[in-house]
Structures are given as C-alpha cells and as structure tokens.
Design goal:
Structural class: alpha+beta
Main location: nucleus
Number of strands: 16
Largest sheet: 5 strands, mixed
Strand order of the largest sheet: 10-11-12-16-13
EC number: 2.1.1.62
Organism: Esox lucius
Subcellular location: Nucleus
GO molecular function: mRNA (2'-O-methyladenosine-N6-)-methyltransferase activity; RNA polymerase II C-terminal domain binding; S-adenosyl-L-methionine binding
C-alpha cells in the first residue's frame, strides 16, 4: 500500500471506532460494524490508538493519531512493527529520514521497513503485499515481487523445519544492531539483458561440488609436500580459486576449467616464495638464528638434489657453508645481524634455488588445473542429467528491448528443478540448515536478512518452497570456497563499517556495491561472485560482466593485483562510453613499496577527481565471517592504510563532486567505531592478502598474493611487524588481514 495521509485515504473510509467499538462522529457504518467490537485497553486509548474501518480492504485496522501508525492487528504497547503497517501511514519521506539519521552513529540509525522485518517481530511476515523492488519508471520493467501468505513463515513449507504441529513458535529474534539498509533503492541504470545461462543450483550438485573441491585441496597439499617438501602456503588455494576466475571461461561457477594461461601466477608465486623453506616473522634473536641455519641447510640440500648448473651449485654451496661457519663462530650477534645475514643469503641463493624449482612448481600448478577441469566435467554432466530427469530443457530465447532500465537481479534462463527437503532448526541465535548430514550455519539476524533479500529479488518462488534449499546452497558455496580451517578465509570477505556506507549514500548517492555477497552486502543491489546462487538474493552478477550506464558505486575489490588491474580497465571503459552521471569510489590498500599497477593507473587516470588516504590503525572493517561470528569479533582494526580514489566522468563529477565538506563527512564516518578499537582482526594472519568482499570478477573475485620473488620485502622491516610466526615470504606480509568491502 502506498503512503497517504490518514484523512485522505483513497478508497478507504476513515471510520473511527470508540473504545467500546461503536462508530463515532457520524461516520458511515460498515455492515460488519454492527457486530460487537472488542474493547481497546485504556492504555492503548491513552496512547492514541483507535479502531477504524478500511472500506478498501473491508476489514478493521488500528490507527494512532499521535504517531500516524496503522496496524492490521491490535497493537501491543512497545512492540510496534513497521512492516505490518497496512496503509503505509508512518512511512517517512526519504529526505526527511536521511536528515534525521545524520547524527546517529553505527548501529543507531532509525529502523525502517527492512530492519523491522529482520528483527523477526510478531507481524514481520504478515503483510499481504510487497511493493519494494526495482524502481518503476517509464523505461523500467516491472519486476514482480513474491508475496507471502499472511501469517505464514517462509520456512513452513514442504522443505521446512522439524517444527511439530501445535508447538509454539520460537520467540522473535531481535538483534540490537543492523548491518545493512535494504530500503535504499538503486540509481544504477543498465541496458536490459537476457537471462543468464547458468544451471540452476541444487543441493545434490552443490554437495558433489563441495566433495570434489575438498579432494582438490588434498591433491594440492600432497603435491606440495611430495615435490617440494613444504606445506601449501596458507590461503593459497583459496586465492587460486579467485584469481583463476578472473579469466576463466568455463561453465562451473567455482572451479576453473578454461583458463589461458593454465599456470596460475598466484599459485606459482606463493609456492615459490616458500622454497626452500617457509620464512616466519621473527620476534626473538634465537628464532632468527634458527631460521638462518634452516634456510642455509635447506638451500644446500635442494641444490644438491636437483639438476642445477655447476655455477649455481657452486654459488649456493659456498654461501650456505659460509653462513654455517659464521653461525658456529659468532655467538654474540644480535637479532638484526641474523636478519641482515638472512636477507643477504636469500639474495645470493634465491635466484638459483628458484631456477631449479621452477619446472616442479609449474608442474604442481598444471596438475591442479587439469584435475579441476576434470572435476568440472563430472559436476556438469551430473547436473545436466538431473535437469534431464526433470524434463528441463533449453528455454526459448528471451525477447529483449534495446532500452535502459534500473538494474535488477540476475535471472536464470532455465527453471529450477524440484528441490529436496532441507531441515531447519535454531540453536540459540544460530540458524542451522541440514541436507544429507551436511550442516551450514548462519546467525539468525543474517538468516532474516537472506529472507528479505529473497523476498525482494526472487520471482519464481512465491510460496518460498525453494527458499531453504537455496540458502543451503548459497552458504555451502561460500563455505567451500573459503575452506574449513580455523579462521580460514575470513579475510576474503570483509566489509566497510556501517557509518561509512551511510556517509557514502548520503554524501555521494552511492546505492550499489561492486564487490559483495548476500551475506555481507549493505545495499540490496550488489555484484557478487556466484550469479547462480546469489541472484535469488539480489546479486546483479559478477562485476566484470556488469556494465552500468549511470549510477554511483562503491568498489572495494579483493586485494589481488590481477583483479584490481582488470577492475581499473573496466571502470575506464565504462566511464569513457557513458555521458550519463557515473561515479566509482574505490577502496584499495595503499601499497607503495612497490606501487601496485592498479593504484598507479588510478592515480594517473583522466577520470580521477579526488584521492585521500585513511591511515593504518585509525579505521576498521567488519569481519568476513560476520554472518556467523560473535558480536565482539564483528569489527577489527585495519593494520594498513587505505587509499580512497574517486573516478567519475564529467556528469558524475557534476552530480557527486567530492567537495571538501563531503570528504570531511566521509572521514568523520570512519571515526564512528562499531566497537572500541582493539587488537587487529579476528584472523590476523599476515600472510593473507585479504580482499574485500567477495564478488564481481569476470566470474568471481580474486585475491592472489603480491608475493612475487622480485618484490621481496625487507626482512628488517618485517621482523618487527607482527608478534606471530606466520609466513613473511615477501610482500604478502604487507597485506592487511582485514578487507574493505564484497
């Protein structure tokens, strides 16, 4: 229903009932008003509530003359739920609401429609009609939104929960802080596009993909150990998955199968950096002495066992033996002396060791790629057989018009097959979904968020019969992508703080995230890694396949040189083609030793309108595992500076100019903390070149390490940078464990 003044409701008779249920002030009496009406408690009458009759809906409703609130159900003091407002009387204008929220800090903004729904209030699933979706204009296709039957929870379906008939429903879950704003409409305009040809997700296929991806991880572990005697570099497999999808043209949304070249620069660099041994961050003198000895011994052993040239063998042996002799006779050296010696030894022996290991490491990369391609073939064949058994065939081509429309979620060309039963139960604040013994978990607040995103974005499941199975596939996909290790992958999916998003929206009209996921997005419109699973929850698809003609965007890409470079190329192409207002605000790590190609290109771009830096330890990010982590682990400190670059065409600059006042508001938003600043992030793994939110590659994000041998970082600097014993192989250690957002 639309927002209207109470006195001028079109099609409604404002029949006010007295506390005893009788009509007052000569209002026309509806036939049903002759029936006895329940009395309103004195507390409600004193609070301004009265009972009215809706002629349009032919049913009574309750209206508050003090607050302009209206409800279908009898109100309960202190528990008003906006989502059940039948007449939309309490909907505030966007401008007024934004002005009222300006002074509120993180987690304290006024709750709006989507927030109240995610709180799980008593009427959160009782509205008979939903009109939030793609903004309708003369050039915008109307996208139907899936309504819910009044009073029905979306998981009370054939695929629903184990809840027995007659059991009381669980108490409403009311999180204290909301980390998203799903009421903000998009200003991103695109050309109308055909439905995507991805195969529709299914739990059985997702389970097979998870099992084969786990096997592929095991193969990688075995190859590294057998061929090079090392453990796989931490997170290197995850970054390989992401980096490959920048250029992969294969059919699988996760595993690569059609890449050129087949040898991943990311995987190759990271394995090479751990040869002959993995270098650790050093805290004490004895650790430095031990590491120096181990490196000399491993280099000598490796050069003896490989097919090295006489000159290489001679150089490595001489340097290794000289180092060992120095260690035996000098016991008064400081930690700095040991670190200097190790740096010298790496420079002397590193190129020769790398030369003899090159073929072997390339073999590891090639082997993993070919196994992945075989697994993709198996998964796709199983998927096609499943669709064939369900009589699902190729659809007719879509009839497209050459017109501009507001962006809308990815639609799949093929209809979804019938979905199997997925069980749902709640353990305190955690929603647990189980399929064939495989359980995925998500915080209840984020589960409610997924329900809202699904309601706004999905058009083929009005009764929510496929909701649970699609949530299971979504969470399982990201779980498999990030790995099952402790804290593994948490840095691959982080987000900007809520106050920063609020400032971006208010000051620069940002309504869209270029790199996000349904789990960590702030807006309901975003690009993400997996269009097949994420499209039902609002994803516009991978960013490198997304071509807006106008709009204001936030981009916080995964911290991978290959992806960031491709992102800059895509930005400049879009800005060059469009004469409509187009703006990109990019958040990237400020790496200047050496300077990354992407940052260098942005700083010299003809579209750069402004640039600023947010210093290290003076800002923070939301955890990549925010959908499941504890509240106290939600925010963590940024250990490296962040560069913020504004790329805009002329029209975009005129509309969203980064003026001094706007920039000051954005910087001030960073000072509003989600919690008291404490130690660095939850995973705090210096080896992780943690990206921002996942999403938006040509098919997916990528976060390969910046650990090229020729970009070796100073061991002097790194020795005091951290207190743990993680890898310091090279500039990887310069990468922050936090991410700046999906």
């Amino acid at each position: 229903m639309t927002s209207e003044n109470h006195g001028t409701l079109k099609g409604d008779t404002a029949l006010v009932m007295s506390p005893t249920g009788s009509a007052t002030q000569g209002s026309p009496v509806s036939p049903s008003t002759s029936k006895p009406m329940p009395e309103l408690p004195d507390e409600l009458v004193q609070a301004g509530w009265s009972k009215c009759w809706s002629k349009r809906e032919n049913r009574p409703y309750w209206f508050n003359r003090f607050t302009n609130q209206s409800l279908w159900e009898m109100p309960v003091l202190g528990q008003h739920d906006v989502i059940s407002d039948p007449l939309g009387l309490n909907a505030a204008p966007a401008s007024a609401e934004g002005a009222g929220d300006a002074g509120l800090g993180n987690g304290q903004r006024k709750r709006r429609l989507s927030d109240e729904a995610s709180l799980g209030g008593p009427n959160s699933f009782k509205r008979p009609k939903i009109e939030v979706g793609v903004p309708v204009t003369p050039t915008t296709p109307t996208v139907p939104i899936s309504p819910l039957t009044a009073g029905t929870k979306p998981w009370n379906s054939a695929t629903g929960t184990d809840e027995k008939p007659g059991q009381p429903a669980p108490a409403p879950y009311r999180p204290t802080i909301i980390y998203w704003d799903l009421d903000i409409q998009t200003n991103a305009v695109i050309k109308e596009r055909a439905p995507a040809d991805h195969l529709p997700p299914h739990p059985e296929i997702e389970l097979q993909r998870a099992q084969l991806t786990t096997k592929l991880r095991q193969h990688y572990h075995e190859l590294c150990y057998q061929r090079e005697g090392i453990e796989p570099p931490r997170e290197s497999f995850n970054r390989w998955l992401l980096e490959r999808k920048v250029l992969d043209k294969g059919p699988d949304p996760l595993l690569p199968s059609e890449c050129d070249p087949i040898i991943s620069p990311s995987m190759f660099r990271e394995v090479m950096n751990d040869i002959p041994i993995r270098l650790s961050r050093i805290k004490y003198k004895e650790e430095a002495r031990k590491l120096l000895f181990k490196y000399a011994e491993a280099a000598k052993k490796m050069i003896d066992s490989r097919n090295a040239s006489p000159d290489s063998r001679k150089v490595v042996k001489w340097n290794a033996e000289d180092t060992m002799n120095w260690l035996r006779r000098d016991h008064s050296a400081s930690k700095e002396d040991y670190m200097d010696r190790l740096e010298h030894l790496r420079k002397q022996c590193g190129p020769h060791v790398a030369a003899v290991a090159r073929d072997s490491v390339e073999g590891i990369c090639t082997k993993i790629y070919h196994i992945s391609a075989e697994y993709v073939r198996r998964i796709r064949q199983t998927h096609l057989n499943l669709l064939k058994d369900c009589n699902i065939t190729d659809p007719d081509p879509a009839d497209l018009q050459d017109r501009l429309v507001y962006c809308y979620p990815v639609r799949l060309a093929l209809p979804s097959p019938p979905q199997p039963r997925v069980e749902l139960h709640f353990e305190n604040d955690i929603a647990c979904l189980r399929y064939k013994g495989e359980m995925v978990k998500v915080n209840r607040g984020y589960f409610a968020k997924l329900e809202l995103l699904y309601r706004y974005s999905c058009i083929d499941d009005p009764r929510f019969e496929k909701f649970l199975s699609r949530v299971w596939c979504l969470i399982k996909r990201y779980q498999v992508m990030f790995g099952a290790g402790v804290n593994e992958g948490t840095g691959l999916q982080g987000a900007l703080p809520v106050p920063v998003f609020e400032a971006l929206n208010k000051q620069f009209g940002v309504t869209f995230e270029c790199f996000a996921s349904p789990l960590n997005s702030y807006f309901k419109q975003f690009c993400s890694a997996f269009p097949d699973t994420d499209g039902f929850f609002g994803s516009r698809g991978p960013f490198l396949n997304f071509s807006p003609a106008s709009g204001s965007f936030e981009a916080n890409p995964p911290f991978c040189e290959e992806l960031m470079d491709a992102m800059v190329t895509h930005f400049e192409e879009l800005l060059e083609k469009s004469s409509e207002p187009l703006s990109f605000i990019i958040f990237v790590p400020e790496w200047r030793d050496p300077l990354t190609p992407a940052l260098k290109r942005m700083e010299t771009s003809i579209y750069r309108r402004h640039q600023m830096s947010v210093p290290a330890f003076e800002h923070e990010y939301r955890s990549g595992s925010q959908h499941i982590c504890k509240k106290e682990e939600m925010y963590y400190k940024a250990v490296h500076g962040t560069a913020v670059v504004f790329l805009q065409n002329a029209a975009g600059f005129a509309k969203w100019e980064p003026t001094l006042e706007r920039i000051q508001e954005l910087l001030a938003a960073y000072q509003v903390s989600g919690r008291a600043l404490g130690s660095p992030g939850p995973s705090s793994t210096p080896t992780m070149p943690s990206p921002a939110s996942v999403g938006g590659l040509g098919d997916k994000d990528s976060t390969s390490a910046r650990a090229a041998p020729e970009r070796s970082a100073s061991l002097d600097t790194l020795s005091t940078a951290s207190q743990d014993n993680s890898s310091i192989s090279s500039p990887v250690e310069k990468m922050p464990p936090e991410a700046a957002s999906v």
